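tool_call: predict_structure(chain=1)
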Amino acid sequence: MPHTAVRTAGPLLQARIAEQAEVLAGLEPEVRADAPDAVHRMRVASRRLRAALRPYGRPLAGTGDELRWLAGCLGQARDTEVLGELLIAQARGLPAECGPEALVAALESWWRERYRRAWPAVPAALDSPRYAALLDALRELAAGPPAAGLPTIGEVARREQRRTASRLEAARQAAPGEETDLALHEARKAAKWARYAGETAGGQGERFTARMKALQEVLGEHQDSVVARAALRELASGAGAGQGFGYGVLYGGQLAVAERALERLPEVWRQARKPPGFE
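tool_result:
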């Protein structure tokens, strides 16, 4: 993409909206069939659409709110899926004295029950008039003329990068424990929006996108550990003596995951804070 083309945000944002709206609508049959990774991909499309709408501000805030609603309806099922996969994979790698087979069986049963309870929210959302209205609104945006007077994509990326820096600083100053965990989770979300701004810039934003993706991922590893540890505490409280030991080993493993993520964070952020390099 020529450098001059990146300076005008309206056409780029409109193209992004059209692209991701098509992805969103096209995934509906797979999501209804509960195909592997379909819920995740629809949730990502909804987030990318929200990121493309953010520079418009208040005029499109309502559509952004509807996309947040959709992502929320998809979220519990997807988060349950991710958590189950993470814990089961970790349990399979435990030594024999931890009783991995029994742990895996217990985790699979726990995961299936949680997913069974979470899943009905997904088809209910897709069947709702609210979802149909959202698709109509996105089609209208994609078909309309590009908006004028928007910030450049580079300005959007720098704004999201500054927000990420602010949230990482808040995490640095937070009290250890839950307060720090929550602040790092907010920083992860900010890094995600910055990454999506880079994606919208196309080829000019590839390096920035890769750096922000790396930051999002290391913060995501920390957040996954926080969620996994909370689930393991719940599981251990109702487990028998043998399984309780195994859950404790899993908990220790997740503590190590969080520690490694925090050790890597300064260098990953040093790269991610570099100027976006595009307008």
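agent: Residues 1-6 have pLDDT under 50 and may be disordered. Proceeding to next step.
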